[in-house]
Amino acid sequence: MKYDVAIVGTGPAGLSAALNLKLHNKKVAWFGADGLSMKIQKAKKIANYPGVPMVSGRDLNQCFREQIKEAQIEILDKMVTSIVAGRNGYMIQAGEDIYYAKVVLLATGTVSSKVISGEEELLGKGVSYCATCDGFLYKDKTIAVFCENRKFENEVTYLAEIAKTVYLFTDYKDCKLNLPNVIQFDGKIGEIVGREKAVGVQLTDGFKIETDGVFIFRTTLAASTVVNGLKMEGPHIIVDRQMKTNKNGVYAAGDCTGMPYQIAKAVGEGNIAAHAIIKYLQIMS
Amino acid sequence: MKYDVAIVGTGPAGLSAALNLKLHNKKVAWFGADGLSMKIQKAKKIANYPGVPMVSGRDLNQCFREQIKEAQIEILDKMVTSIVAGRNGYMIQAGEDIYYAKVVLLATGTVSSKVISGEEELLGKGVSYCATCDGFLYKDKTIAVFCENRKFENEVTYLAEIAKTVYLFTDYKDCKLNLPNVIQFDGKIGEIVGREKAVGVQLTDGFKIETDGVFIFRTTLAASTVVNGLKMEGPHIIVDRQMKTNKNGVYAAGDCTGMPYQIAKAVGEGNIAAHAIIKYLQIMS
User: Fold this and answer.
1) For residue A43, with 0-12 CB atoms within 10 Å meaning exposed, 13-18 middle and 19 or more buried, which class applies?
2) Given an 8 Å threshold on Cβ–Cβ distance, is A260 in contact with B241?
3) Are residues A64 and B50, on separate chains, in Cβ contact within 8 Å?
4) Radius of gyration of chain B (CA)
5) Sequence-distant (≥ 6) Cβ neighbours of residue B213 within 8 angstroms
6) pTM (two decimals)
7) Cβ–Cβ gap A50/B272 under 8 Å
C-alpha cells in the first residue's frame, strides 16, 4: 500500500492537512481515531474558533465529520506504532499492516500520559506497542502490560492467550478482564528496568516484578518514540515556519509542535504543512 | 485613547486575534474595513476551511460578522497610515485620530497594488497617506493624487477644496468626480520624483508632472511603509514561530507574513500572535 502522504492524527491539524492534500489529488493514508479529537469532543463551548461562533466541541466535531464525508476522505482507525525511514520515504506500522508513504505528517496532539522511564530506550528491546507484531515472541513467557484505555483490552486478551502470565496495569478503574493468567495490579509502573533488554518493571512504590517483556497500549504515542531521531524540545516536536521537522520528509502540525494548544493554531499549521508537502512532492518527483 | 493592543486588518488573522484578546479582557483597537476581507467576500467556494464545509466567501464573512457581534467587538473603520514607536508602546495614526497601544499586530493581508517607486523614501517628505492630517500643508498648491478605490473619493474632494490643482490618477474606471480643479489622467504613476522632498511624478510613459506633494489612497498599505524599520523578505514581514517581527512589541499574522495565502493559516497565526501578545503584556506590566 503506497501513498504520497501518511497523516498521523485525526484532530483539526490532521483534518486541515487532509482537506488540502485531497484537493491537490494526493494519495493520503490518514491514521487516527474515527471519533476524531476527544479533547474537542469533550469541550463544552469553543468561543474563539473563527467562522463557527460559540460551538460545543461535540457539534464542531460533527461539522468536521460532515466535511470529511463530503470531501470523501477515509480514516484508517489504526494505531501507528512505528515509522521507519526507507529508500524513498517511510514505512509505517499501523495495527498489523505496513504502509509506505513518501512523506509523513505527524499531527498527534499532546501526549496525555507521560512516557515511562526506560520506555524509549528499551523500545524494540523487550518493550512493544503492538501485540499482533510482537506477541508471538512471548509464548509461555511472563509479560507486563500497561493499558491506558479500555478499548485496548482485546489486545490484552490476545496476549493472555499467548503468554504464561500477564501482569496488568490500567489507567482506568473497573477493568472487566477476567482471565486466569492475567494478574491485575493497583500500582503504577514507575520504570521499565533493563540495559540491553527489558527485564522487568519497577512500580512507583518501589516494588519490582521480573518480566520477559513489556507491552504498552496508549491512545497517543509520543512522536519521539514512533519516529526515531526526531528533534524535540521537551514534549514538543521542533519545526520551522514550514512545519518541517529535522527529518527530511517528516512534517508536524498542531498541539504536538507546541503551545498554544488551540484549534485555530492546529488548522493553520495543518494547512501550512500540506502546502509545504505539496511543494516537497513536486521537487521529489 | 490608550489600548493594550492595536490590530490592523479585519481579515481572518485579525479576527482570530481579536476574539482571543477579547476573551482575555485586553483592550483592543481593531482597525480595518467594516466589510472584512474583500478577498474572502469575492471567493465563490471555500473547500478547505475546517469546520465550515463548502462555504461561499460571502457566507463565511457573514459567519465572521455574527461572531464579531456576539463577542461584542468593535471595528474602527479607519485607515492606519503610520505607526511610530513611543515610550511604552506605539502611536497609531488612523484617519484623523491618534491612538496609543502597548502592542501592535499587523494583519494587513497582501498588498494588492504595488508600492510606487520613491513612495517609501519620500513618505512624510511630500508623500502622504492622510488628507485630513497633511492636506492643510498644500493650500493653493499643486498635488498629485493616486486613488485606488472609489471609496476614497471624499478624500480627493477634501483635498480639491484646499489645493489649487489636483492631478488625479485612479485604479478604477468611470471616476465620477467632477470638480473644476481636478484634472484626471489616464496614465499610471511610475515614480515619485525628488530627493529631499517629492517634487513631482513621472508617469509610466515617461511624462513628468511637477507637484508640491503626492497623496496616495489605498485600501491596504504596505506594512513596511506604515511601520518604520520592519524587516521584510520581499513583500512579506519576517516573523518567528511566535509571530514576532524584528521590532519589539510588533507582531504580524496572516497573508502579510507569507504564503500559503489561506484562511486556515491566517486564523492559526492570529491565534498564536494573540497568545504571544498576552504573554508579552504580562511580562511588560
Assistant:
1) middle
2) no
3) yes
4) 19
5) B126, B127, B128, B134, B137, B138, B141, B143, B144, B198
6) 0.84
7) no
